[in-house]
């Protein structure tokens, strides 16, 4: 089994920055694409960003494009989400996910493994 553990969430003022990390452990699942999703209270889980196994292909939700950057370090089995220019509407629980293929995807249904989530709260 594969475990994904997110970290780096917290409380930040609007305009601030946070960097989320997602470390994979357990059974090797290389190659695998990674994704970040979020869920705000009373809303459905939504796509944020995704990155291919090689890291050369990334996709972003329009709402975060230009502010968030997804990256990965395969030697550390870790994916990152750098979040700059945070807004109150970015407040949500952020989840990382992994799928057993190298192809990045914005669809949550194609991911095989999920982390437990980390809370991000942006105050106005």
Architecture overview:
This protein is mainly β. It contains no helices and eleven strands. It has strands spanning about 1-5, 10-15, 20-25, 35-40, 45-50, 60, 70-75, 80-85, 90-100, 115, 120-124. A hairpin with a 6-residue loop joins strand 5 (about 45-50) and strand 6. The N and C termini lie far apart (about 40 Å). About 35% of the residues are buried. The model has no long low-confidence stretch (mean pLDDT about 95).
In summary, what is this structure?
The protein has 124 residues and is mostly beta strands. It has strands spanning 2-7, 10-13, 18-26, 33-39, 46-51, 58-60, 68-73, 78-83, 92-99, 113-114, 118-123. A hairpin with a 6-residue loop joins strand 4 (33-39) and strand 5 (46-51).
Summed over residues and divided by their number, the pLDDT gives a mean of 95
Q: Give the termini separation.
A: 40 Å
- Secondary-structure element string: EEEEEEEEEEE
Note the beta-strand portion. over 45%
The helical percent reads: under 10%
Radius of gyration: 13 Å
Class based on secondary structure composition and strand pairing: mainly beta
Segments where pLDDT lies below 50 for 5+ residues?
Answer: none
Q: Please identify the oligomeric state.
A: single chain
Largest sheet: 7 strands, mixed
How many helix segments?
Answer: 0
What is the general shape?
A: globular
How many β-strand stretches? 11
List the helices and strands and how they pair.
Elements: E1 2-7, E2 10-13, E3 18-26, E4 33-39, E5 46-51, E6 58-60, E7 68-73, E8 78-83, E9 92-99, E10 113-114, E11 118-123
Parallel strand pairs: 2-11
Antiparallel strand pairs: 1-3, 3-8, 4-5, 4-9, 5-6, 7-8, 9-10, 9-11
């Amino acid at each position: 089994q594969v475990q994904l553990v997110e970290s780096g969430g917290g409380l930040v003022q609007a305009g601030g920055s946070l960097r989320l990390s997602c470390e994979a452990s357990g059974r090797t699942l290389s190659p695998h694409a990674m994704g970040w999703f979020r869920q705000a209270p009373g809303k459905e889980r939504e796509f944020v960003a995704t990155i291919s196994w090689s890291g050369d292909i990334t996709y972003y939700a329009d709402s975060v494009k230009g502010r968030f950057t997804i990256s990965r370090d395969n030697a550390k089995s870790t994916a990152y989400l750098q979040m700059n220019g945070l807004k109150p509407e970015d407040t949500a629980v952020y989840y990382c996910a992994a799928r057993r293929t190298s192809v990045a995807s914005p669809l949550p249904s194609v991911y095989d493994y999920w982390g437990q989530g980390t809370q991000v709260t942006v105050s106005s």
